[in-house]
TrEMBL record:
Gene Ontology biological process terms from the UniProt entry: tyrosine biosynthetic process
SUPFAM superfamilies in the cross-refs: 6-phosphogluconate dehydrogenase C-terminal domain-like (SSF48179), NAD(P)-binding Rossmann-fold domains (SSF51735)
Name assigned to this protein: Bifunctional chorismate mutase
Source organism: Rhodococcus rhodnii LMG 5362
Family: Belongs to the prephenate/arogenate dehydrogenase family.
Every Prephenate/arogenate dehydrogenase domain range: 10-287
MF (Gene Ontology): NAD+ binding; prephenate dehydrogenase (NAD+) activity; prephenate dehydrogenase (NADP+) activity
Record-linked InterPro entries: 6-PGluconate_DH-like_C_sf, NAD(P)-bd_dom_sf, PDH_C, PDH_N, Preph/Arog_dehydrog, Prephen_DH
Length: 298
């Protein structure tokens, strides 16, 4: 088999039994692929999926990778970078390695040292516990491998998602805003709220709908695995640039707020709206729909 031939895997080994790994494993199994999930910890059993407790660097893991047609790396970045190098010699030439990393450029750089590895990336732009239908999945092109890209696109579009192909650096630049900036804003809101030291019950009793919405996002983020968000913030210059932009924006807001010239604040609001482009009116309608029930007491 070559990269030009259609890719139709029969066996998949999914390394990482977390939420994303479980999601991809389920999609593989639903397509009739014999799927095994491998994790150092016990994982929840899913119908039609074999669960193996093993380290990704162990001999059993290498054996599973050697037998698989598609190897999925749903692992933290540092582990995935070492894992692909460790497993490379065990892979057959036709095997495709699919990673689900949140940051792609360092992994892409590592792949340049492994030219024989067929590789494609994916990043579901939503929590895997949500209904995937209509939601975006970034499919990342590392190689000129149309068959691997087509199969990966079909894996997610078959579940109703919108699979969008991007380059590694393009992915990271966009995710600097989509993920790093968004999560930094939510977490900074929570840290500032804690520093104000006000009673949460009193706040929620009087809360405006936007406060409820922001607090709900904070609750969701802080209830998840912090290592996922750390990977997003830690790796890559795009995340650092996003945090710097956020800090600079807060400084400009502070300056505009204390200025004696009201036009400065108006200009700040105008500049903030520029980030939405032509979508502002449509997104304002979306916000109105989202906030309809926020703040209401059942």
């Amino acid at each position: 088999m070559t990269a030009a031939d259609p890719f139709a895997p029969r066996r998949a080994a999914v390394f990482g039994g977390g939420a994303v790994g479980a999601f991809v494993a389920r999609l593989c199994a639903e397509r009739g692929i014999a799927t095994t999930t491998v994790d150092v910890d016990a994982v929840a059993v899913q119908p039609g999926i074999v669960a193996v407790r093993a380290d990704v660097f162990s001999d059993p893991a290498a054996e599973l990778a050697a037998a698989a047609d598609v190897v999925v790396l749903a692992l933290p970045e540092a582990v995935a970078l070492d894992a692909v190098a460790s497993l490379a010699d065990a892979l057959r030439p036709e095997t495709v390695v699919l990673d689900t990393l949140s940051v792609k450029a360092p992994y892409a750089a590592a792949l340049t040292r492994m030219p024989g590895v067929r590789a494609v990336g994916a990043n579901p732009m939503f929590a895997p516990t949500l209904d995937p239908r209509g939601r975006a999945v970034a499919v990342v092109r590392y190689r000129d491998d149309a068959a691997a890209l087509d199969w990966t696109t079909g894996l997610f579009s078959g579940a109703g998602s919108r699979a969008i192909t991007v380059e590694p650096q393009q992915h990271d630049d966009l995710c600097g805003a989509l993920q790093a900036l968004t999560h930094a804003t939510i977490l900074s809101f929570g840290a500032a709220l804690a520093d104000l030291d006000l009673d949460p019950g009193d706040l929620l009793a009087l809360a405006l709908p936007p406060f409820v919405a922001q607090s709900a996002l904070l609750a969701r983020v802080t209830s998840a695995n912090p290592h996922v968000y750390r990977d997003i913030q830690h790796a890559g210059p795009a995340a650092a640039a996003a945090r710097s932009a956020l800090a600079a924006a807060v400084s400009r807001l502070d300056a505009a707020s204390v200025s004696d010239d009201p036009d400065e604040f108006t200009e700040f609001v105008r500049s903030a709206a520029q980030g939405l482009g032509d979508a502002r009116d449509r997104l304002a309608e979306t916000a109105a729909a989202m906030l309809t029930d926020a703040g209401r007491t059942p």
